[in-house]
Amino acid sequence: MSSMSLRVLAGACLLALAACASQSPAPGSTTPPATTATPQEMVALIRGAAGDGDGELAVQPLRDPMVDDLRERAAALEAQGDLGSAVAALDQALEIVDGDPALLQERAELAILQSDFERAGTLAERGYALGSQLGPLCRRHWITLEQVRLMAGDVEGAASARTQADGCRVAGPERY
């Protein structure tokens, strides 16, 4: 090949690579969501991902009765459509036990219902880090992260979160 042909070929390769390279969004622009699900649909999906846990290993820590009362109150308030009061109840419970993975997950789900996806992701990540990292609660953490990433337009990140959620299922020990 002549040197001219090599230059043309090299230039063509550079143009092809430049065309394949992803463009970073312009300042001030946002990536469109990769989902059309409503926050209510997202939370239903997250809660459904836990499954019934039948035959599965699930770690259940001892609970503070005051915290349990606040959790029940938050669930009742959410069912009545009073998200603000439900959030306040869970925030109060988190002041008592700030490292409870289930509380953090429940608060993350309320954050999704309030369309506060960044907060939801932070809470789910913290809950996962503090939790047993297996079982139904683990799946809820990862499906929350999947939904948050879909809202951010991060399809690859969402797929990775889904894979992590699938890895949370661990069979319980055999009983004799």
Task: Explain what this protein looks like in three dimensions.
It is globular, with a radius of gyration of 22 Å. The chain contains eight helices and no strands. It is mainly α.
Outline:
This protein is mainly α and 176 residues long.
What proportion strand? Answer: under 5%
Q: How would you describe the shape?
A: globular
The major β-sheet equals: none
Radius of gyration: 22 Å
Class by alpha and beta content: mainly alpha
Through-space gap between termini: 75 Å
Low-pLDDT parts are: 3-29
How much is the average pLDDT? Answer: 83
Number of strands: 0
- The number of helical segments is 8
Oligomer description: single chain
Name the helicity range.
55-70%
Order of SSEs, N→C? HHHHHHHH
Annotation keywords:
single chain; 176 residues; mainly alpha; 64% helix; disordered N terminus
Write the layout of secondary structure elements.
Layout: H1 3-20, H2 39-49, H3 65-79, H4 83-96, H5 101-113, H6 117-130, H7 136-151, H8 155-166
Helix pairs in contact: 2-5, 2-7, 3-4, 4-5, 5-6, 5-7, 6-7, 7-8
